[in-house]
Prior knowledge:
By secondary structure, the chain is mostly beta strands. It is 4% helix and 30% strand. It is built from 2 helices and 30 strands.
Amino acid sequence: xxKNIHQVFIANPITSNASTDLMYFGQSPYNxxxxxxxxxANFAAQFGQxxxxxxxxxxxxxxxxxxxxxxxxxxxxHAASLTLGWTGTLSGTRGGTGINNGxxxxxxxxxxxxxxxxxxxxxxxxNTSVTFPTSGxxxxxxxIPTGAALTNxxxxxxxxxxxxxxxTSLVNAASITAGxxxxxxxxxxxxxxxxxxxxxxxxxxxxxxxxxxxxTSTANQVLLSGSSAAPSWSTATYxxxxxxxxxxxxxxxxxxxxxxxANSATLVTNxxxxxxxxxxxxxxxxxxxxxxxxxxxxxxxxxxxxxxxxGAGSITINNTAASGFTNVNQNTSSVxxxxxxxxxINNGxxxxxxxxxxxxxxxxxxxxxxxSSGGWTIHQNASQQCxxxxxxxxxxxxxSLSSSNQYDCITITNVAANTxxxxxxxxxxxxx
Length: 432
């Protein structure tokens, strides 16, 4: 008698899944002749292979990764994979730019942050490189100040010419006042001395140039010129001897002759045309002519840097200008500087140390001329300081000026208490 599937399973259920076990199938609707059987081995061969567990895998994108959970290696009937990609534009709310940048390159190094709910637009018109400051605020072109002028105020003897575009070259208007300090050196066309009412000189011309003669004369000296040399003070008189009340006159070209002794108060001319003065005059008086008038006795008037002493039958004229520079052959290792002195450094390979005087007089000047390989250095006393252009030495005994090369030269003048100005510099001076 045929049994249906239910009856077979109840009476003899399959529990071992042996290859020879029979598996019964029915169809719907069921009839008694519809039963069919198949061994488990045939069933497994027919239906089991296609349903072996298979893996679910994934392929990550460069910027997007996917993590598979559970048992992805055996979770599918057939093996399958997921390939992760990227489409669209990442919005600003997701941390993107919200813009399709196409082939543009955006490189941001380090931290980058923008705050404030405002738009930002930057327009590039070509390849651009910008280096931002570490702090501060960038200005727009409208915030840049309008160019202001750089002006100059000239000194009487010194002028300054501004080049370029000084009328719009500054952020704020500024001016430069050109002045004059110190004495102009001989090499620059000056006298290298402070010329005052009591300190002057006489200008004379040599065969090739002009020069200043300074210094003082002694009693009864006169200034004599030479044919090609500098003028000099001399005690020579013309004529060699005179007597009381005699006058000198020019008897012929380049010849001075004395008149006879005066004996009256009238200027007369003898038979040969020689004038004579009769009478008396006070000490130092000479006859001084006046246009269309009779000459009258008068004393000489002293000019700048000149003194006149009148005596009986004598007139003494002196130059009151300060004496010129003293030259020193500095061939020892140390010296205290003396005013109005030029030091020629000549100590071979040994250094020469020159010390500023502790109590100089304003206007005192010192000249140092390099000449030996050992060089020179200038030391200061307490509170003293030297200024050289915009630089200055350390105040006090720790400050100094030194040569860098064998022939470096400078000129120094005391301009105030403990303050010295350096000028006429040749070479490279080391300022400490």
